[in-house]
Specification:
The complex is a heterotrimer of chains A (526), B (100) and C (490). Chain A is mainly alpha-helical. Chain A has helices spanning 2-6, 8-25, 31-55, 85-104, 113-132, 136-157, 162-190, 201-210, 215-232, 241-248, 251-276, 278-304, 309-330, 333-364, 380-394, 400-414, 427-454, 471-489, 491-524, and strands spanning 64-72, 77-83. A two-stranded antiparallel sheet of chain A has the order 1-2. Chain A is globular and about 70 Å long. The chains are: A mainly alpha (526), B mainly alpha (100), C mainly alpha (490).
Amino acid sequence: MNALRDHILSLVVFAPLVGALLLLLVPALERGAIQVIGLFWSAIVFALSLLLLRWFDGASGGMQLTEQHAWITSIGASYHLGVDGISLFLLLLTALLTPVALLASFASVEHRVKEFVICLLLLESGVLGALVALDLLLFYLFWELMLIPMYFLIGVWGYRDRVYAALKFFVYTMAGSLMMLFALLYVYATAPVAGQRSFDLPVLIAAVQNAPYPIGTELLLFGAFALSFAIKVPMFPLHTWLPLAHVQAPTAGSVILAGVLLKMGCYGFLRFALPLFPEASYWFLPPIAVLALVGILYGALVAMVQKDIKSLVAYSSISHLGFVMLGIAALEVKATTGAVYQMLSHGVSTGALFLLVGVLSERRHTRLISEYGGIAREVPIYTAVFVLIALSSIGLPGLNGFVGEFLILIGTFGSRVFDITALGPGAGRWLAVAAASGVILAAVYLLWMVRRVFFGPLRNPLNKGLRDLTLREGCVFAPLVILVVLMGVAPGYFLKRIEPAVAAAVSDVQQRARLAGMGRSLEARP
Amino acid sequence: MVPIGHYLVLAGTLFAIGAAGVVSRRNAIVALMSIEIMLNAAILAFLAFARLHGDLRGHAMAFFVMAVAAAEAAVGLAIVVAVFRRRATVNLDELRELKG
Amino acid sequence: MSAHDLAALVPLVILTVTGALCLLLEVTGVPVGARKLAPRSHIVWCSELGLAATALVLLRLFARADQPALAFAGALRLDRFGLGLGLVVCVAAALAIPVAVGFLRSRDLDRGEYYATVVFAALGMIALALAADLVFLFVALETTSVAVYILAGIDRRSSRSPEAALKYFLNGAFASGILLFGVALCYGATRSTAIGALGPALRGGDGALLASAGLLLVLVGLGFKVAAAPFHMWAADAYDGAPAPASAFMATAVKAAAFAALIRVSVNAQIDAGSGWISAGWIIAVATMTVGNLAALAQRRVKRMLAYSSIAHAGYALGGVVAAIGGHTPALGAVGFYLLAYTLMTTGAFGVAAFFERADGAGCSHDEWAGAATRFPLVSLAMAIFLFSLAGVPPTAGFLAKLNLFACMIDGGFYWLAFVGVLNSLLSVYYYLRVLVFMYMRDPDPQLAGHGGAFVGAGLAIAALAVLLVGLLPGTMLDLAAQLRDVAPG
């Protein structure tokens, strides 16, 4: 058991990869067989990841279950993994969403099934690896590894404009990644590490803590990291690839994209950009907060006028991730904990919404709101699930969406990060108030869409006799519905484990920023 | 005795003529000949310098260059013949199948 | 004849014998034991064995070369730099031979002379990598070039191949002429033809101007060979028009060897870090990568795209060379590692082009590759690996090589060079992915056919696995590359 415990992270990260390689070697079996193998394998990965919960010490805010081995010694890159409260549940969510997405695409993916399953498993490995990597080179490797299978998922199994969407997705993300790579290399080459150069995150953080960069350099470096992560989130105005990618991606692709891939941007801010460049973060947080606010409102307003259900959900993603970024930018324990919680609940809710849209478009091959109306009587169970998920996405108290948004808003309201900036004292308050209107807008666009799709008279005869959820689809939604309720009524279980890590990270950044000279700029500002 | 400088000027001039020929002439054979002029200009320079330095290295080099130039010319002419057989022209401007 | 002379001679003799044997086997016909094999498999095996033996000898010499030694009165220098790049040449030749077999058989070019020419060219390249004397350098360069001109034109019944060979030949010979004149001037300035004599001559005395002019011409000549802008124009025609297997070899091995010579000459010149040479070098590096990438964007033929991409990659490597000349010695190892990664992925990519190529250059355009992934999944997978590596996406050799190279540039203080390199990599992503779009995301073209076979499959598989392996576990390779630092006589 000890050996298992020592290598549990490696096991979880590489199990999907091994599965993908095994599938590569398996001759082209029947479609069903490959799907079942993939499902089974990813379910095992999920089961393995549950072991993390058992061994994870919720009270500690530090890295746990760490592993470190020599990797490329000559350039100082090591195989260094670890998990903390910030990444733990994201890890679990990823491991859960992959089998769910696989199960959901049993019927909809008809050609090149083997490659499809391989791509999903590779993607899972990439995301899991990026979540636990504590070595910058290793992180970059996994970060890019997420990109390749997603590119194929969109490009091969997507809808009509898939090629363009895939290319846009890849080029946008790659542009950010390369900026990050450059900054990363700069830090690697210039950080005052004693002895050999290193890509190790804790080592580099300690090095730049001892001898911070001049603020100009630090701003540029933070900017490069932030650009990369902001594209991934995506933050307004770098979001233009997202609706396209979502709309064109197959259901499973959208689920993973919304569920976990986007979170990697937010996660990157918390794990890398803030701790490495604390002083620059302080300079950048206010504009990030403002952009996040713009994203919340913009996403919500644009979602309102969408004709296609899927693109409505895609724009709602932009809005919800604006909340996450606002919570991170507030750099306050409550708000940032809320941001991490919101990442999870957005993953569950929006993932579920994409799955629901997928079910509908599988049946009717259209996702236009105007094609539907009054289908609640034909598909009662489906309608019930959809309404529940929509409510959770809106942030109804008692469901998961509420907890995160609430924490973010009250945290931001009390945040003092913005006081010393150009936004002026008390900026946290109006940011929070303005962001709260995003919650109202969410209610408007989601409920309006629900009304137009499900209620009212059944006008379109094609919708007559629409099939309700099958047993398989029921299995797809069951875990998500349970989570939606569970995370709503018992958030304490999750928050208890998230908060110590967030508190440690936040206070670390605050403290070091102050040491590094925010005190200076505090004094400089009358 | 002719001063060394004169040889070098001649060599430089020949080299320039050869280079200009390669760049401006469109007939493959003429271009090949121009390249030979360049090589010979180099040989002349080698010999002039050998004389200047009073050692034999430059002379040895001249022999090397002659051998290499012969090999190069042999392959070059073979290629020209292959092109001519297939396309019935050796004018570089007319050989435009490769572009993009 | 000293022990060093003998040691230096061994790899060259092995290759000479191998080449001769390949020719002989063509004449004598199939030996009794090999009757059951496909025709001329034994020649392929013969050349592969010869290359393997050479590589082993080079490795052995590499291990012992902690003290560089001069051989043949200073004509060759047995140092780790030269030996290491000689190994890269061996890898390039050893990979380029098997991937060629399918195409050669389909065009009835599968003759001993093809393999012999490759082996002789490799001989010239290894000599070039080791050359420490300008005379020897010139002769080695010409041995290489003449062999490669032949390879470019080997498909003489096609209309494209001879044209490519002619253009390649005229440019190459022109470059040789320039280089030779430069050598003559250097000889005049230094009274010697040793590369090591350049540095002192440049730094003062009456010969400085002459030596500078000579150095400039030599570097221009070598710049032609590595296809550096503005001397890159020939490369697209030559690599696109030549049969793809020949391009695989030309674009990699020639480049590795020419880079070896370029580095040896420029480092030995001991240029001041602040001088105009450095600025010129970095302008050329930036221009080369940018020109290559911009031109590659517009291509509709995979082969031609790869040709321009090879120009772009020469630009990145040149950036490393500039850092090395600027006094940052680890950059030498980074360039060596880069050339190795470049060799693996480019040979592989051209190898896939050779898999699909038909008569007169058909079968090499994006359109014709549409849907290749459904018909040829494994070859397409290999191509995907090569393309991602070329684009510098992890976990491939191409990524790690770029990382290492850019880190060296930053380390050496060439921030802008690294930054432009990063921007250029971004540009390149687009056109590499475009190929994958066609292969994976379009409906299959029923006319597409490939020349499979054990050799081709093995060659591509080895190249693809090597790209991944070097990308994931580059430790040993990086350690070896780090030893390629000793080019100049101390």
